[in-house]
Amino acid sequence: MVKHSLIKTWVFFLAILTGAFSYALSTGAEKNPKLSVSEKSWDFGEIKQGDVLTHIFKFKNEGGAPLEIFNVRASCGCTAVILSKKIIPPGEEGTLKVTFNSRGYSDKVRKYIFLDTNDPDREKFQIFVEADIEVPPRPRIALEQYTADVGLVIEKEKIRHAFKVKNIGERELSFSCLHRQAEFMVNGEKNSFPVKVSPGRDVEVFIDIGRAEKPGIFRDSILIKSNDPMRPNISLFLSGYVVTLEQLEDLCSRGKKHPL
After folding, report:
1. Domains of the chain
2. Partners of 50 in the beta sheet?
3. How far apart are CA 209 and CA 197, in angstroms?
4. Per-residue confidence of the chain (260 residues) as pLDDT tens digits?
């Protein structure tokens, strides 16, 4: 009988301890800030390229201490974020305005927004916006290569190269090549810019950069401007090595002495 009474006493004592511990935990949790958001994402649906869209996320502090948002940042510059206030007292609400500029994007796109807070359960929190972007028919420029090695060039001789410009879009492409001193030839004509390229076609451009001035590594670039709205400016990077005639003769003589 005494043993049974002791067991009941211990059970009652443990119940009191458990309840006190749970109360302490809940009381401590209530003293912390708690970030609650109405939605973690927003889908703008099908839009047209170039549309600028805005959505406002609402959030609330459901904790017992002021909620502080230290920092808000977007995954790229195309998405702007404006926070209504950085400190939200218990029970109060705030907003986060997100503006997405779809210019230059196509197909399914998702952009993230990151929040740093003093909520111990959501110190790093993220939401996102997304959209399906429809791209209208347009010219699309493409190069056969974006970097080219012109190889060995003898000092004082001309540096020349040829490359192809393609139109992989649905509208006529118009482009021009720019360089501080180079001469260009397209379809047998010098500096005949702008050049028109029909959809699915390409043209070959010949470059005469001028004479190699001094031995050593050669690097240069050609700027190509076009009516492709997504790639109005692209570059072709050229590299090579300039040698003197004596250096070239020395290389040739070494090759004869040590054939592969």
Report:
1. 35-134 (2.60.40.10), 141-254 (2.60.40.10)
2. none
3. 24
4. 544 555 555 545 454 545 544 544 444 446 899 999 989 999 999 999 889 999 999 999 999 999 999 999 999 888 999 999 999 999 999 999 999 999 888 889 999 999 999 999 999 999 999 999 998 888 999 998 899 998 888 877 888 899 999 999 999 999 999 998 888 999 878 877 899 999 999 999 999 988 877 788 888 999 999 999 888 999 999 998 888 766 666 666 665 555 55
| Integer angstrom CA distances of residue 166 from 68, 124, 175 | 53, 45, 10
Predicted model pTM: 0.58
Report the C-alpha gap between 55 and 81 in whole angstroms: 10
Query: What is the per-residue DSSP string for 34-83?
Result: -EEES-SEEEEEEEETT-EEEEEEEEEE-SSS-EEEEEEEESSTTEEEEE
Please state, in angstroms and rounded to a whole number, the distance separating the CA atoms of residues 165 and 252.
Answer: 35
Contact 144, 126 (CB under 8 A): no
Q: How far apart are CA 129 and CA 40, in angstroms?
A: 9
Strand partners, 222: 236
